[in-house]
Amino acid sequence: MRYRTRTKVWLLRASVAGAATLCGTAVVAQAAADAAMAPAAGSTEAAASPLNLRQVFDAAWSRQPEAMALQARRDATRAKQTAAKAWTPEPAALEVSNRTDRLGSNQGARELEVGIAVPLWLPGERGRSAALADAEGAALESRAHAAQLRMAAAVRDAWWQWQRARIEVATARAQLDSTRLIAADVARRMKAGDLARADQHQADGAVAGGEAAVAQAEAALAVARQHLRALAGAAPALSGADDTPAEPDPGAAAIEIEAHAALQELKDRAAVAQRSVELNATQSRANPELTLATTRDRGARGEASQQTITLGIRIPFGAGPRFDARSAIARAEATEIQAQLALERERLAAEREAARVRVEASRTQLMAAERRAQLARESRGFFDKSFRLGETDLPTRLRIEAEAAEAERQAARTRIELAAAISAWRQALGLLPQ
After folding, report:
1. Who contacts 185 (Cβ-Cβ below 8 Å, separation ≥6)?
2. Which of 153, 192, 228, 365 is deepest in the core (most CB within 10 A)?
3. What is the C-alpha end-to-end distance of the chain, expressed in Å?
4. Distance CA 130, CA 136 (A)
5. Which band of pLDDT confidence, cut at 50, 70 and 90, is reported for residue 194?
């Protein structure tokens, strides 16, 4: 009888050892697999095309109103540049008039006048109009580039939120699988009389908690994925993603702050405002007009018709409240943009430094998190062996398993945070996603 009991205990411990070994192997394999790809949630999700950050950005930018209207705005700018190079500020006008006394004395008096009125450029107006058109063309391109950078910020934020949600789902599923294996082992040992029913309840409670954590993580993943869908028009696939989706590290590359798209946009707007001030200074009056006309008339019926040619010029009076208002508005716009440019330069400099410091801190955090995960894995192995030998109780085993899972989750999350910090650094430097 004693021999059978010892044999039974030996077989039970052997089964526990096998289950625990399988548990550790499954957790490590699942964590490695989930770090590389998140499982698909159905045939529809598996059919989604894998998208990287650059592809998501391109798709999102192509859907923006600024991108759709960009070509039309370029055409308008080219038309303005062509108009500024024309010989006249406005098209010439044809003038035709006819005078008769038919409704009056009816003596046969007639006068027919045909002429053409040609607007003339004011002194310096043509050159400054061309300069303003060129400045507006440059401002249009810098405005589009700045809009791309603003869209890149939104895409980057949504992308890394999705990556964080993927990591949460992967680690939650790995912890759930590990807890289920422990619960199955506890169930076998309870049936063998080695553990109490209270231990089974604790293990089943841990499984229920893991299932709740997986459901919560999957809900957050769905929200992040739909946010990306709203930006790009297509949701990225839940599988096939790279486990290191980081953008290139800018490193010590010397990127001048003046080349930043936000500053370039303001500088081009300031140039447009300055050109507007200069143009308004020349437009102190309306454009003069040169008139060339020919007149054919007769004084009475029977008299011979006479033909004359008229050459005239029309010069409007200058200055006045309207001119003062236009000049004041142009100067105010230029002053406002210059002040905004100085503030934006300071903000970008601070943002660059903060992003660089964040990257350095993230690297330190990653080293610490990976060290913690390694120690947690080793501790889990120690306590797993102790649990199999009956030297450690179930609550301690579950606590050690939870701590190891949390360490793995923190390490994976820190890797994503480092990649997100590098992406934010590139954003602060004015670089588009790659």
Report:
1. 15, 16, 19, 20, 23
2. 228
3. 72
4. 10
5. confident
Contact 90, 267 (CB under 8 A): no
Cα–Cα dist 36/29, whole Å: 11
Own/partner long-range contacts of 210-217 (Cβ < 8 Å, ≥24 apart): 210/172, 210/175, 210/176, 210/179, 210/180, 211/176, 213/172, 213/175, 213/176, 214/169, 214/172, 214/173, 214/176, 216/172, 217/165, 217/168, 217/169, 217/172
Beta strands in 101-222 (DSSP E): 110-119
**Cα 35–Cα 41–Cα 45 angle in degrees, nearest 5:** 95
Distance CA 249, CA 155 (A): 18
Structure tokens at 129: 């109009």
Percent of the chain with pLDDT over 90: 34
The pair of structure tokens assigned to 288 is 């003069």
Residues with Cβ < 8 Å from 228, sequence gap 6 or more? 56, 158, 159, 162, 235, 236
**What pLDDT digit, counting tens, does each position of 223-232 carry?**
999 998 998 8
Query: How far apart are the C-alpha atoms of 103 and 264, rounded to whole Å?
Result: 68
CA nearest neighbour of 274 among 341, 349, 348: 341
Tokens 């003339």 correspond to what residue?
Answer: 120
Report d(CA 274, CA 138) in Å as an integer.
14
